[in-house]
Amino acid sequence: MAPRQNPRRIIGRLLDIFRCEGYDGATLTTISNGIGLGRASFYHHFPGGKSDMARAAFDRASRDFTRAVLAPLAGTAPPAERLQGMVSGLDTFYDGGRGACLIDVFSMGGARDLFHEEISEAVAYWMEAIARVLVDVGFQPEEARRRAEDAIIAIQGSLIIARATSQTETFRRVLSQIVINLMSDAPAKAA
Amino acid sequence: MAPRQNPRRIIGRLLDIFRCEGYDGATLTTISNGIGLGRASFYHHFPGGKSDMARAAFDRASRDFTRAVLAPLAGTAPPAERLQGMVSGLDTFYDGGRGACLIDVFSMGGARDLFHEEISEAVAYWMEAIARVLVDVGFQPEEARRRAEDAIIAIQGSLIIARATSQTETFRRVLSQIVINLMSDAPAKAA
DNA sequence: GTCTATAAGCAGATAGAC
DNA sequence: GTCTATCTGCTTATAGAC
Within a domain: residue B86? Predict the structure, then answer.
């Protein structure tokens, strides 16, 4: 039984499992069964053990998030299109509301001390990226940050409700309103 | 060393620990140290072990939530006062943004199967309680539910951001806007 | 109602064969 | 690169003294 796993697939599955079970809830046995690889084999890929696995999952999520969500915001397209690009990326990144966010999952229990600083920075970075688009639309920096924060809050909150109620309508409704809410009452001098 | 603990205090501390560490992250040793009671002593108070402890913490949270948040909504005061009563209760219940919500914490890992149904019902019940107030203000039921859902999303999302960034300004800002957002553009026939 | 002592099992982690 | 076997420590849980 040694069908030589694709490292890329392993990390993807690790991310799925940590998102669903949390850091403390994901045991090596859970992970082993979920991936179809013996417990010991993980120490070849991740010499540092479980924390290394979580690190790899976190880095994968960061890269995916940058590509799907942050990159569209930084483009040169018109502001509304950039925001809509973020929304499409969010739908993909959170699997239509079925996937949890590591900002939530890795900020409690044993993962908190491992990722707290990076999570805090990720939130700040995401918020600034949205705010910059709104400044381009003509909003004052302070108002832009406030609206960006509201958007992030709505995403995170709707993911909690999606998980709590086992449905995705809420997440999809929030996504569909994000751009409208961010741009409402935009200053006349909008680009 | 047997200063006979107050059961009420034990459950309160259990709730604090589960909120912070999560179900899987809270070990009996963590709990024992956090409360100052030997591991074995818990089996006198909670014969079913850890799941019984989580159950007691969940029930305590449910009761606290009903008293602090739901009760004001059901009163006979004017709608705006009832909503403001909920906001005050939320500030207390979530300790000004420092305390996590079990809707979040107990919906992943080993606690998910234990509490999923009750958590789902709690969200629905809370939403209906807010929506009823908005219907009293003159909103159509559908619009009332949508606004209620947005309010809950904002609370949950701001708690995530509060925990992720170790600050409470966001939570307090969201709280301060809840009533305004819920009541904005209320129909003329408002009571 | 709390404690000490201990059981039984599972956690994360390692050694070494293939 | 994966496996089997094993180790150590920690986890939940129990028995029984005080």
Answer: yes
Q: Provide the domain limits for residue B134.
A: 58-183
Cα–Cα distance for residue pair A14/A1, rounded to 1 Å: 20
Of B104, B105, B161, Cβ closest to residue A152: B161
Task: Give the pLDDT confidence of A82-127 residue by residue, as tens digits.
Answer: 999 999 999 999 999 999 999 999 999 999 999 999 999 999 999 9
Q: How many domains does chain A have?
A: 1
In-domain check, residue B100: yes
- Nearest nucleotide by C1' position to the A2 CA atom: D2
C-alpha–C-alpha distance, residues A158 and B141, integer Å: 20
Give the integer Cα–Cα distance in Å for B84 and B80. 6
Are A70 and A63 contacting, i.e. CB atoms less than 8 angstroms apart? no
Taking the C1' atom of every nucleotide in all shown strands and the CA of B5, the nearest one is C1
* A63: region left, alpha or beta (phi > 0 left; psi from -120 to 50 alpha): alpha
Contacts for A111 with CB less than 8 Å, ≥ 6 apart: A22, A23, A24, A54, A105
B29 touches strand D (CB under 7 A): yes
